[in-house]
Design a protein that fits this description.
heterodimer; A: about 250 residues; mainly alpha; B: alpha/beta; Rossmann fold; Alpha-Beta Plaits; 2 domains; 4-stranded antiparallel β-sheet; 14 strands; binds adenosine-5'-triphosphate; binds magnesium ion
Chain lengths: ~250, ~325
């Protein structure tokens, strides 16, 4: 294991993120605060509490997930896409590092940043609404697993993308709709049966549901199934990466 | 974990510093390229079976026109491109199977000026050392930056540097992990005289430390200036690999053109010993000579001209270009 290399990549990435800190932390905090003001306070006051949880509190886990997923996919992809784009990737490819070490460095940094932002949003939310965390350990587990999985997913996109448009498609056009339709702002019980069934095809539903369960012990699906789904998605990403690294897909010609 | 105290920064290993030509016990080549082929994804055959042994401590210049396959060859040795067939050993290790051993021996200065625009010089050079798995060594980085006249710029972002300075940064990055083999892919493209001089200084110093240096270039003068051996690549094949002196003797022709003050009808018999040709208008004489003749033949020609009463108003010399050498090589093969 080339620990020194992993450390170098990790801290290099964290430093790059620090330079864009304002943009990457302030903007989700402002967006989340707006959600709370609009959904939580203005509209939420007219929405009855869901299974005994006020609407503002109910949407908090979903909002954290929305930002976590977007951030992890975006950071995980830009981290590897950028050196590919500028050409500086030659250095990592010619260094005595295995692809798994490169992966740990980049994905570790992307997941760390996602987690930091997630926790900042949680802190912001606690200013607006009551937050109760019934299963802190499970809450952290869901958070960490999701951060890692989606940073890996981001890395895959970063390797795959040939231009900035492709790079942005997933974090901009795929993640938000899935999150909105994944029960972030409602319990899927509120939907007609057909749409309930469709919702179960949405992977984000399982994340949001499990994560919310760790807060309020209310869930759209069994939290064990949520964990299994994250595990499945994690395994999918890892095997995809395994194939990519073996074939040198879009990294080594 | 603290960093180890800095002792002495000397890339390479001193016992390797002996020149391959004076060394009694033959050492295995530091790099051995065997039957190497590369076909890119689009079906293009960039390397067609290259065999090449590079000795420890030598400076090898790879000459070749655009698209010859120089960068492809280097990229395979460095691990950036996967070989299609054949194999490459560096320090006796296979570049694919034992990539950790081989890559930690190698420093690469790429042809393209690729830099992290928003990083500082210091950080980007320190990063390079880190990804090569070496513990931080600020004193060494300082020494390298000073040597490349980059010390004053160490806190500048790379986008604030000129092209030549960026090239220096790329050299500093490659040296930051104390490689035993250094690849310089067209190091002098877009580089001014002073950087060229600095660069050759660094190359000489590295060579004294026993570092093996492989550089690619389009300019034969450059190979002539610095290399021990010269390889010529064209169309993915190594056309020739020779010690520089032999190469220049064989192919390096020079021409001297004299613009005469008065029309000359024919070359006087007293000058018959020199290979001279007269232009049609009789106003210029061209002298062809080989590389190693240059010292004495010019002087004796000039005095013979004076003795024959031939005066000239201008003089120019021209060296055979790489293209001429290719023509010569291709003709020889045909
Ligand atoms: N990734 C690639 N995919 C397809 N073809 C490639 C690729 N990289 C290089 N080639 C082709 O392989 C050939 C050799 O390219 P290479 O870059 O090795 O040449 P070179 O000798 O370094 O040339 P130059 O002096 O211009 O740098 C060229 O014809 C080039 O078009
Ligand atoms: Mg090239």
């Amino acid at each position: 294991m080339n620990i020194e290399a992993i450390k170098s990549i990790y801290f290099f990435e964290m430093a790059r993120m620090r330079r864009t800190l304002l943009q990457s932390v302030i903007s989700p905090v402002i967006t989340t605060s707006l959600y709370f003001i609009v959904f939580g306070t203005a509209i939420g006051s007219r929405i009855q509490s869901i299974e005994g949880v006020s609407y503002g509190s109910f949407i908090t886990p979903g909002l954290i997930m929305l930002t976590l997923l977007t951030q992890c996919v975006a950071n995980g992809s830009i981290g590897i896409y950028f050196p590919k784009f500028t050409g500086t990737i030659y250095e990592i490819l010619s260094a005595p590092v295995a692809m798994t070490e490169i992966l740990i460095g980049y994905v570790g940094a992307a997941a760390s940043k996602g987690l930091i932002i997630g926790l900042i949003i949680l802190a912001t939310a606690s200013f607006f609404v009551d937050i109760r965390i019934a299963h802190p350990f499970m809450m952290v587990l869901f958070l960490v697993l999701t951060a890692i999985t989606f940073s890996l997913f981001g890395f895959i996109i970063g390797v795959w993308a040939k231009n900035f448009e492709q790079l942005n498609i997933v974090p901009m056009l795929v993640v938000p709709p899935l999150t909105f339709l994944g029960g972030s702002f409602y319990s899927i019980d509120m939907l007609p049966p057909f749409w309930q069934a469709v919702s179960h095809l949405n992977p984000v539903l399982y994340l949001v549901s499990g994560f919310r369960w760790s807060f309020y012990e209310i869930a759209d699906v069994n939290p064990v199934i949520s964990l299994i789904m994250i595990g499945v998605f994690l395994a999918l990403c890892l095997s995809m990466l395994g194939w990519m690294f073996k074939t040198g897909y879009r990294l080594r010609s | 974990m603290g960093t180890r105290p800095y002792i002495a920064a000397s890339p390479g290993n001193n016992f390797l510093a002996m020149s391959p030509y004076t060394n009694a016990v033959p050492m295995p080549p530091i790099i051995s390229v065997q039957q190497l082929t590369k076909t890119y994804g689009n079906g293009f055959e960039a390397l067609k079976g290259i065999d090449l042994d590079i000795e420890r401590g030598e400076i090898l210049a790879l000459l070749g026109p655009n698209g010859a396959g120089k960068t492809t060859l280097i990229s395979i040795v460095c691990g950036i491109v996967n070989p299609t067939g054949g194999k490459v050993l560096v320090g006796g290790h296979d570049v694919v199977k034992d990539f950790r051993q081989t890559r930690s021996l190698i420093g690469l200065v790429p042809q393209e000026l690729t830099t992290d625009q928003f990083e500082t010089v210091w950080n980007t050079v320190s990063f390079s050392r880190g990804v090569y798995g070496k513990k931080p060594n600020p004193a060494l980085i300082e020494k390298i930056l000073r040597e490349l006249s980059l010390w004053k710029k160490k806190d500048n972002m790379l986008r604030e540097l000129s092209g030549g300075m960026k090239r220096r940064v790329l050299i500093a990055k490659a040296l930051s992990h104390e490689p035993e083999v250094l690849f310089l892919d067209e190091p002098t493209a877009g580089v001014d005289v002073s950087l060229r001089r600095d660069m050759w200084e660094v190359v000489k110093r590295l060579r004294e430390d026993g570092v093996t240096i492989i550089l690619t270039t389009h300019y034969i003068e450059e190979a002539e200036e610095i290399a021990d051996r010269v390889g010529v690549i064209n169309g993915g094949q190594l056309l020739l690999l020779q010690e520089k002196t032999g190469l220049m003797k064989q192919f390096g022709r020079k021409q001297m053109k004299l613009e005469l003050t008065e029309k000359l009808d024919e070359i006087p018999p007293s000058l018959a010993a020199f290979s001279l040709s007269l232009s049609e208008d009789g106003m210029s004489l061209t002298h062809e000579y080989s590389h190693e003749e240059s010292q004495d033949s010019i002087a004796s020609l000039l005095s013979a001209l004076t003795a024959a009463g031939i005066h000239f108003r201008d003089l120019s010399t021209r060296q055979s270009s790489l293209e001429d050498i290719f023509v010569a090589l291709v003709e020889e093969k045909a």
